[in-house]
Amino acid sequence: MAALCESFTLCGLGPSGGVGLGGGLLALEPGPDPDHVLLTDRGRTATLFKVSDQKPLGCWSVKHGQIITCPVVCNFETHEYIAVHDHKVLRIWKNQDINLDKVFKATLSADVYRIHSLPGGGPVVLFRGGGVRTLDVLLEAPQQEIENVISDEVIKWSEAFMEGHQPVLMFTTEKDGEFFVYVQKLKMNSLHKYKLEQQELSKPLSFTAYLKNQIITLLCLYSNNSVYKVLIPLQHNTEEEEQTLSKSLLLNLSVSGSVLKGTSFVVLDKDHIAVLGSRTASGEESKECLTIWNTKFQTLQTSKELPLGTSGQLWCYEEKFFFTHGKVLTVMMYKCETSSLAAAVGKLKDSQTPDVCSFVNWDTLGDEELVVSVESRESVAPKAESRMTLRSKSNSVAEVQPENLSVGQILLNLKDASTTVCGDELTELVSKAQTPDFQANIGCVVTAVINRCKTNPKCDPQNFLLQIVQTRDLSYSLCPDLMAFALEREDVRLLQACLQRFPDIPEEITYACLKVFLSISEASLQRIDLNLESVICYIDIEFNSKEFKTENGFSPKVRPHAWSNGFTKETYLTNDGELCPIGPQKAALLNAVLRSAYSETFLLPHLKNLPAQQAVLFLRYLYYLYVKCSEKINTALPGTSSPTINQIMDWMCLLLDAHFTVMVMLPEAKDLLSNLHKFVRAQVRLYSELNKIEGSLRELQRLNHQKETQTYSIEVLEII
Question: Which of 349, 393, 407, 613 has minimal CB crowding within 10 Å?
Fold first, then answer.
């Protein structure tokens, strides 16, 4: 059995994606670590990503006017990166290198088609003329002559394997509608050419291959919506120059009247393949989707619609799919289990519900999906079955005992339930003991609730969503619609909880939260029950009053700030009697933003769009926090969940980088910048003086440890 699991966004691909992938994605290759991938765009940039954190670890670009012409790869033996730009210029660099103009460069004598990097075998370079060299041999004489193996043929695809300790390279070519296959063993310097058996009225669109027991299995996706298998032995008993390879039908990509027009595919294991393409049915619009097929039993195991469209590219590493979806690069996990007939038809006893995500949209959910979802069904209904039969089977769901229902089935039963009943049932659902796939299921529950709210504006699930966020270890990638929904409704209480709990919030969403928090009025926040743990220790609050009291019991009125800049009319006294430019509710919200994780590279472009008035107000609050931190010996704010001084300073630097020119030109910000400059200068002087006596203090500490003082003693220590 195979199933598609949760997905998340790795990075954006548009001009504002932040990683230079505005021209689209050329290729994705494995990085030096199993959790790393190397992205090459269709321009001049390569980016190394850590998948689990969705953060870039490095980004390198060639100069303007130069173009990277084949995927950048990692040399797994040396942990170096290898790129080719303008077809012939080879570049090699390490992680610590920044400027590619200063790294190793070699100009080759022929155009490079692709570089394949093999663990244990090193990089192998394939030239457009069909010549092959290992990188070590090529670097000994970069200008060495490269032979032309193919004549008037165009390379369409290539792959490399390790057979023992010997690299094997394979590539396919096309000429006048005919396709050829080349297999070369590098150490033995043997090259074999084959002709691929022609298929009437169709041609191959995509290839993939794997090597096992000295036999290469080449899979070909044809334009007639079929996958064919070709076996190529590495041991050759004939000297014939060109043999014709016969192929056999492996899989027909059609099920119950619908046909999948595949664009790319990958092998998952000996019995499963994944195909990316568009599914079409008579009288319906085509829909792009990702599918997993069982080749042993010729069955479609699972599929996922991709409504935003794809580029037709699909990669698979470490049990994760990588593909473009709209303007982002999406990562989707999957699982493949032992292939058996029971699993193929969905009757494996210990299998989970095939695809919980298919239950997300209550409005588009059909009866047919309901039949497929029920684990306790007695037989599998084919998709061509009549609607009457399907309805009769759907009615049988009500007979299943509630305690035995899966998450997907519960969502289906609540499709038409009232808001009260739905809330009670879902609350009971999330309070149950966790199952192994509980996290993914809860993500689907959240998405289902949000979809229901979009179609029913009267539905208000705030308490339920807050309970899930606060009591479950969720993440943004498990329920990406949640924060967008909260932003749309300006639900600052839910946004605060998400910022405090989610470890993987994209910078675009963090910025959107910041903008909402700064724009909402203090009067509106007074009526909202927010978590004030991060501010309660330095802004004392009386919950039954709209005024903010100091520790000595006085209740000063809200007073206008000395800077009448028009950005805010009110300031608030803290328990030290000092002026805070914002109220405690807004301060608690901003503290949640300050404590969230981010990448400066991605956040800075968004911060530049922050309105000047909000930027100045935010900087005033950051300056206030900076002063408060500096008053303490340990440079830390009191209370729990308060931002650290490093977080405050990092945000101040980011904000000034994004808005420095605007703030310099604003008369209203002049006093703020001047005070900030004076305070920082005083801090620098203080730490400079402390550094001067640091050596003497360390020496005193050493002397004290060496001497054993009695009960009473007088010592005179001289600091020279």
Answer: 349
Kindly report the CA angle at 134 between 175 and 154, in degrees rounded to 5? 10
Q: Name the β-bridge partners of 96.
A: none
Cα–Cα separations (whole angstroms), residue 524 to 159, 528, 530, 585: 61, 7, 12, 10
Q: Is 688 exposed, middle or buried (0-12, 13-18, 19+ CB in 10 A)?
A: exposed
Task: For the chain, report the end-to-end CA distance as a whole number of angstroms.
Answer: 78
Paired sense of beta strands 55-61 and 45-50, if any: antiparallel
Residue 264 and residue 252: Cα distance in Å, rounded? 15
Contact between residue 479 and residue 486 where contact means Cβ atoms under 8 Å apart:
no
Say which range, 296-300, 523-527, 560-564, 657-661, has the weakest mean pLDDT: 560-564
- Closest to 182 measured CA to CA, from 200, 203, 155: 155
Token pair recorded at residue 51? 């998948």
Residue found under tokens 């709210």: 453
Residue 548 CB partners (closer than 8 Å, separation 6+): 539, 540, 541, 542, 558, 572, 573, 583, 584
Q: Which residue has the higher pLDDT, 379 or 133?
A: 133
DSSP 348: -
Report the candidate in 606, 682, 619 with the shortest Cα–Cα distance to residue 652.
Answer: 619
User: Residue 399 pLDDT > 50, yes or no?
Assistant: no
> Distance (Å, rounded) from C-alpha 589 to C-alpha 592?
5
Strand partners, 401: none
- What percent of the chain clears pLDDT 90, i.e. is strictly above it? 31
Distance CA 693, CA 301 (A): 71
Task: Find how far residue 84's CA is from the centre of its chain.
Answer: 27
**Res. 14: pLDDT tops 70:** no
Q: What is the pLDDT of residue 706?
A: 58
Mean pLDDT, residues 548-573 taken together: 37
Please write the tens of the pLDDT for every residue from 670-685.
888 888 888 888 878 8
Burial degree of 350 (CB within 10 A; 0-12, 13-18, 19+): exposed
The rounded distance, in Å, linking the Cα atoms of 499 and 46 is: 30
**Distance of alpha carbon 235 from alpha carbon 277, whole angstroms:** 36
Distances (CA, A) of 259 to 277, 314, 381, 584: 10, 19, 19, 59
- The token pair that represents 540 in the structure block: 């004392």
Dihedral Cα 215, 208, 317, 320, nearest 10 deg: -120
Q: Give the integer Cα–Cα distance in Å for 684 and 677.
A: 11
pLDDT band at 204 (very low <50, low <70, confident <90, very high): very high
pLDDT at 415: 58
Angle ∠(63,138,33) on CA atoms, nearest 5: 65
Most confident of 6-20, 346-360, 429-443, 488-502: 488-502
pLDDT for 392 beyond 50: no
